[in-house]
Amino acid sequence: MSELTNADLFSPVQLGPYTLANRIVMAPMTRNRSSEGNVPTQLNATYYAQRATAGLIVTEGSQVSPQGFGYPGTPGIHTSEQIAGWRLVTDAVHSAGGRIFLQLWHTGRISHPSLQLDGGLPVAPSAIAPAGNVSTYTGSQPFVTPRALETEEIPGVVEQFRQGAKNALEAGFDGVEIHGAFGYLIDQFLQDGANQRTDDYGGSIENRARFLLEVTEAVCSVWGANRVGIKLSPSNTFNDIHDTDPKALFSYAITALNSFDLGYLHLMEASAADIRHGGKAIPVADFRPFYSGTLIANGGYNREKGDAAIAKGDADLVSFGVLFLANPDLPERLRLNTALNQADRSTFYGGDEKGYTDYPFLHSTTIV
Ligand SMILES: Cc1cc2nc3c(=O)[nH]c(=O)nc-3n(C[C@H](O)[C@H](O)[C@H](O)COP(=O)(O)O)c2cc1C
User: Where are the transmembrane segments (predicted)?
Assistant: First the structure.
């Protein structure tokens, strides 16, 4: 289905109802810089507005409920203060001429009792603890065994996503992206390493995809499908997620998503770390034949690789994570094929302006 095109990263593109100036997307990135109450701030607004020359910005994951909270300092989308905080961000990005989608997040078992209401256990499809450690307010601690959701509870979790989607609308976003990647709740339902349920949400691939499809339906009911995206990471191993047959699982899920006519599907390829941890990189191109809509490719792209993916028709847009974090004017730098700032990994998660809003632009800017 891939078709050669004349387009490249700098060609305008239609995404849902929006004509985007270029095909360079800022990938969602958790930066753990929300204020007390998990509320976005003016500093967050500045950071996103600095990056408004992206064809589209996708925000960091934003938890749809207290239950979906998994890391200190991440912004929520379930209180009126959080909605007001996000409004600062959407206003700033729109004033700078950008488009911005909110990423809707529920971390599931990637949490800890100290982050949950009343110190309860995090929830998941099955009571299987991921290997590794979780970040808490008192440092890194081993993951606990989560509580398996009762079948009767699942519609309520779907409702958390619907409410998050409504709140995002109120906060002035242009759309939402459902976080179905990286071993968080939706991915936990998808992959059999985390889902051993025996009800309608476990067992067969069709059953394991049910939660994803129900959440998608709920979110589309709020926004209309063409302003909804979804991110999946078929090759990812981060957060101890694995499946016995990821190619079959994700081919099914992606095929099923066609029927919604979504704004886009965002696919992350394996990272170098995933491959080191035994993951098999399934190229985005392998999934292209299963998806008829707009596809955003992600994972280790640069200008050359991005242009090639678009020209070959393997992707319609390309998202950039680390490069966008370190280069607020990434589209201009890619266009000029000029030097890029190097990212400072020590300031990725948490902190202040340092490593956040102080990466230099090629040319001076008024966004401070
Ligand atoms: C600091 C940081 C935080 C991230 N947080 C998220 C997140 O909240 N949601 C998400 O879907 N991906 C998250 N990612 C993954 C990126 O969206 C992207 O998939 C990944 O960085 C690979 O793209 P790249 O090679 O262009 O950086 C994060 C990545 C980084 C570096």
Answer: none
Distance 238 CA to ligand 1 centre (A): 11
Give the model confidence (pLDDT) of 329-353 as tens digits.
999 999 999 999 999 999 999 999 9
> With contact defined as beta carbons under 8 Å apart, do 44 and 33 qualify?
yes
Give per-residue pLDDT as tens, 160-197.
999 999 999 999 999 999 999 999 999 999 999 999 99
User: Angle at the Cα of 287 (from 24 to 189), degrees rounded to 5?
Assistant: 95
CB 175 within 8 A of CB 223: yes
CA 79 to ligand 1 center in whole angstroms: 25
Instruction: Give the pLDDT confidence score for residue 277 in this predicted structure.
Output: 63
Contact by Cβ (8 Å): 83, 77: yes
User: What single-letter amino acid sits at 313?
Assistant: G
Give catalytic status of residue 184 as yes or no.
Answer: yes
What's residue 243's pLDDT?
95
Give the Cα separation of 184 and 190 in Å (integer): 10
Instruction: Tokens for 79, please give them.
Output: 């209180």
User: Which residue's structure tokens are 């994570």?
Assistant: 321
Question: Which single residue is written with the structure tokens 């009792």?
Answer: 113
Could you tell me how far CA 353 lies from the centroid of its own chain? 23
Per CATH, domain 13-347 is 3.20.20.70: yes
Q: Which atom of ligand 1 is nearest to the CA of 177?
A: 11
Q: Nearest to residue 239, comparing CAs of 124, 150, 318? A: 124
How many beta carbons lie within 10 A of that of residue 205, not counting itself? 18
Cα 137 to ligand 1 centre (Å): 22
Q: Which residues line ligand 1 (CB under 6 A)?
A: 27-30, 60-61, 103, 179, 181-182, 231, 268, 298-301, 320-323, 348
**Paired tokens of 330:** 């990434």
The domain limits of the chain are: 13-347
Instruction: Please say if the pLDDT value at position 366 is more than 80.
Output: no
